[in-house]
């Protein structure tokens, strides 16, 4: 290995087979990971990380890579918070939001504010990629959610995670969790208790849902307009009749493939019924407009004709 120098401060040396020269001690040139790096001052070091040359004039002007895009911290932090929260963070997928908040404390604050601003969250397309931990980490901050769709997210939808949703998201008006087999009556009961504005529920193919949920929904969901409980074998005439008698705002009901539902459970939709509310006894007409009873073998054609005669569209929802 050859080495020469005219003065002590201008040594030339070879490290790892790469020649390196320095005119002063403070302006060393060195090579890291096979890439030549130079610095004129200690505070302006150039270094190479993961094979990418990175330069910084100050500690606050680091360059980082987020979502596969080179981003300058000095540029990002010069933007108003509103731009970052409402225009930049929405460009990330919900799976990328987690790593973003790990960049630094400032980005963590941005992510928390972004989640608090969410009104609608649809994770249906992610299905099994969303787990219980991720869902809970989101709803912990997304306390202003009005619409939450978790269809087929069976890894995320558990009794525990939906209890967390119930405790955090009191403004929910739409909740969908079809094809989530771990969803329980207890979770739905607590959700209805904590979310009095609920207007739409889709619990189709949640095989652990029974009449216990329907009875609680009938009692507590005064604003409910849509209810989907198809393919739930624990749903019977008793639960459907409670919905018919008490959910007077209901416009859409789907009980398809609920083989225990018969004519008896649907009778309540055919007649005016009396109930006691806070103002006393009132006679009301059920407002149901659309009913789906496909493949309910105990519901006869005669019953379908009677329902149709009072203006209810049967099996024409989709």
Quick summary:
Helices cover 29% and strands 20% of the residues. It has helices at 73-76, 81-88, 94-100, 105-117, 132-139, 159-168, 185-194, 211-220, 237-246, 263-266, 301-309; strands spanning 12-15, 18-21, 29-32, 35-38, 46-49, 52-55, 63-66, 69-72, 120-122, 147-149, 174-176, 200-202, 226-228, 252-254, 273-277, 280-284, 290-292, 313-314.
Task: Describe the model.
With 318 residues, the chain is α/β, with parallel strands linked by helices. The protein has 11 helices and 18 strands. The chain has helices spanning 73-76, 81-88, 94-100, 105-117, 132-139, 159-168, 185-194, 211-220, 237-246, 263-266, 301-309; strands at residues 12-15, 18-21, 29-32, 35-38, 46-49, 52-55, 63-66, 69-72, 120-122, 147-149, 174-176, 200-202, 226-228, 252-254, 273-277, 280-284, 290-292, 313-314. An 8-stranded parallel beta sheet has the order 9-10-11-12-13-14-17-18, with helices on one face. A two-stranded antiparallel sheet has the order 1-2. A two-stranded antiparallel sheet has the order 3-4. Strand 3 (29-32) and strand 4 (35-38) form a beta hairpin. The longest helix is centred in the middle third of the chain and has 13 residues, at 105-117. The chain is elongated and about 70 Å long. Residues 1-70 and 272-276 have low confidence and may be disordered.
Q: What does the secondary structure layout of this molecule look like, with pairings?
A:
Layout: E1 12-15, E2 18-21, E3 29-32, E4 35-38, E5 46-49, E6 52-55, E7 63-66, E8 69-72, H1 73-76, H2 81-88, H3 94-100, H4 105-117, E9 120-122, H5 132-139, E10 147-149, H6 159-168, E11 174-176, H7 185-194, E12 200-202, H8 211-220, E13 226-228, H9 237-246, E14 252-254, H10 263-266, E15 273-277, E16 280-284, E17 290-292, H11 301-309, E18 313-314
Parallel strand pairs: 9-10, 10-11, 11-12, 12-13, 13-14, 14-17, 17-18
Antiparallel strand pairs: 1-2, 3-4, 5-6, 7-8, 15-16
């Amino acid at each position: 290995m050859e080495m020469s120098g005219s003065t002590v401060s201008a040594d030339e040396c070879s490290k790892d087979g790469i020649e390196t020269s320095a005119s002063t001690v403070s302006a060393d040139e060195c090579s890291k990971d096979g890439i030549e790096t130079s610095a004129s001052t200690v505070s302006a070091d150039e270094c190479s990380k993961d094979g990418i040359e990175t330069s910084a004039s100050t500690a606050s002007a680091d360059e980082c890579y987020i979502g596969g895009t080179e981003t300058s911290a000095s540029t990002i932090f010069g933007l108003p918070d509103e731009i970052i929260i409402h225009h930049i963070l929405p460009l990330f997928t919900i799976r990328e939001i987690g790593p973003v908040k790990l960049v630094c404390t400032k980005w963590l604050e941005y992510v928390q504010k972004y989640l608090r601003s969410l009104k609608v969250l649809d994770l249906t397309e992610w299905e099994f990629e969303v787990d219980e931990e991720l869902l809970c980490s989101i709803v912990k901050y997304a306390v202003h959610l009005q619409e939450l769709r978790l269809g087929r997210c069976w890894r995320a939808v558990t009794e525990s995670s939906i209890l967390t949703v119930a405790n955090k998201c009191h403004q929910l008006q739409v909740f969908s969790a079809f094809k989530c087999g771990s969803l329980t009556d207890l979770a739905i009961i607590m959700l209805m208790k904590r979310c009095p504005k609920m207007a739409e529920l889709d619990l189709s193919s949640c095989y652990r849902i029974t009449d216990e949920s329907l009875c609680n929904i009938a009692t507590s969901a005064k604003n409910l307009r849509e209810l989907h409980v198809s393919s739930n074998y624990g749903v019977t005439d008793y639960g459907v009749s409670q919905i018919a008698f008490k959910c007077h705002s209901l416009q859409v009901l789907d009980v398809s493939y609920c083989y225990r539902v018969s004519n008896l459970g649907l009778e309540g939709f055919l007649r005016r019924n009396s109930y006691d509310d806070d103002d006393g006894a009132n006679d009301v007409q059920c407002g149901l407009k659309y009913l789906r009873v496909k493949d309910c073998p105990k519901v006869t054609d005669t019953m379908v004709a009677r329902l149709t005669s009072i203006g209810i569209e049967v099996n024409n929802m989709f």
